[in-house]
Design goal:
Distance between the termini: 34 Å
Radius of gyration: 26 Å
Mean pLDDT: 94
Low-confidence stretches: none
CATH topology of the largest domain: Rossmann fold
Number of helices: 14
Strand content: 15-25%
Helix content: 40-55%
CATH class of the largest domain: Alpha Beta
Length: about 375
């Protein structure tokens, strides 16, 4: 059975110079991690990654590549011998398929000669192939500015011919930028924040604060579904489910109503720091967007962020809700996030929360909670869910 070939292009990885090899290895590992159990090969030559596979696996591998960070684009390619006659023959066959598929009659030929030992220049190869296609297919016309399709030719250790490409998600490959801990709620924002950091190559772990019976099992299932969806983009994601009811009860008992949300978020930040130290995460990730709600003002974020010495990444901080929703739809988390099962931050949001909290006063209020023992007890009872 003849195997098929995807030619995979990457972008900023090529700029990593001496570290490029490590990033390419991460990219190949990411592709393999997306497709456990399937038989295929992944290798690299001349700044290109290739995936070779049986025909029946094309759909699965194509779907995986569209969700593999670090991939700029990919396409089905023909690998042939480095001979101009073989190249011309293959180009005729490809063009025939493009025409039969109704892709249009305006074309151009683009050649990249990565191996300069090939006797013809890129320009000469393009001219010869273009002239041959015009001769074989009288209805075709050359348009170098707005072609309907492009015949791509690359001269490497072999010759490769291919047509239109499928876009990948760009970014950096999973695992190439350290590990972060995502504070994952059931809302729209935090899954998008996790996705954006995963796109920059970060391995993502996530933590959800479950407060039964105040929050339902449906709320937990919703968050697990969100984590599972993110795992389609970032394989290896785990979800830590924290029994947070005792902490929430202490806050409700001791705190003024308008301080509840900020003190709850401060406790979450403190707990997340403890968990990150145990799991090896190097930063915290939140879905905060400046000014979106009372707990996301500069003053509020300064207060909650003061409860950790770890960097707090807020990739959505300058985005509005419409921009965030656009990404949520793209990554398939929006519908799940919209399910009517609220987390504890929503359920216990006060009618008139503090917008510009006094840092000294809020620190005193936090100290009066005496939650350190409760946080460590919650850490020991935390459940780890893998996908």
């Amino acid at each position: 059975m003849t195997e098929l070939l995807f030619l995979v292009k990457y972008g900023e990885i090529a700029l990593k110079k001496r570290n490029r090899g490590a990033f390419v290895k991460s990219l190949k590992d990411s592709i393999r991690a997306k497709l456990p159990g399937l038989q295929f090969s992944v290798y690299e030559t001349f700044h290109r990654v290739f995936v070779r596979f049986p025909p029946e696996q094309e759909k699965a591998i194509s779907a995986a590549l569209t969700r593999t960070f670090g991939v700029v684009s990919f396409c089905k390619a023909l690998q042939i011998e480095r001979d101009i006659s073989a190249i011309e023959s293959a180009a005729v066959g490809l063009a025939e398929g493009f025409i039969a598929a109704g892709m249009g009659k305006k074309f151009k030929v683009e050649t990249r000669r990565a191996d300069k030992s090939f006797p013809l220049s890129s320009y000469e190869i393009s001219c010869r192939v273009g002239e041959l296609l015009l001769e074989r297919f009288p209805g075709l016309g050359v348009d170098v500015h707005t072609p309907d399709w492009v015949m791509n030719i690359e001269i490497r250790e072999h010759a490769y011919l291919y047509g239109p490409s499928i876009d990948g998600p760009y970014g950096l490959p999973n695992g190439s930028s350290g590990k972060g801990l995502l504070l994952l709620s059931g809302g729209i924002d935090s899954p998008v924040a996790g996705w954006m950091m995963a796109k920059r190559g970060m391995t993502i772990e996530s933590v959800y604060f479950h407060s039964a019976p105040f929050t339902s099992e449906k709320a937990r299932e919703k968050v697990e579904t969100l984590a599972r969806t993110l795992s389609g983009w970032a394989p290896g994601i785990v979800l830590f489910v924290v029994p947070f009811t005792p902490v929430l009860a202490r806050i409700k008992e001791k705190a003024m109503d308008e301080e509840v949300t900020l003190l709850l978020r401060a406790c979450m930040t403190s707990f997340a720091t403890l968990l990150a130290e145990r799991s090896g995460a190097m930063c915290l990730i939140t879905g905060e967007s400046l000014g979106q709600v009372a707990s996301q003002t500069v003053e509020s974020m300064a207060f909650t962020g003061s409860f950790t010495e770890l960097p707090v990444f807020r990739p959505l901080v300058g985005m509005n809700k419409e921009e965030i929703i656009t990404i949520a739809r793209k990554i398939d988390t929006f519908e799940t996030s919209n399910l009517p099962y609220a987390d504890c931050c929503v359920l216990f949001s006060p009618a008139h929360p503090l917008i510009r909290p006094n840092q000294r006063k809020m620190k005193l209020s936090f100290g009066h909670l005496h939650v350190e023992t409760l946080l460590r007890e919650a850490l020991e009872k935390t459940e780890k869910v893998t996908f």
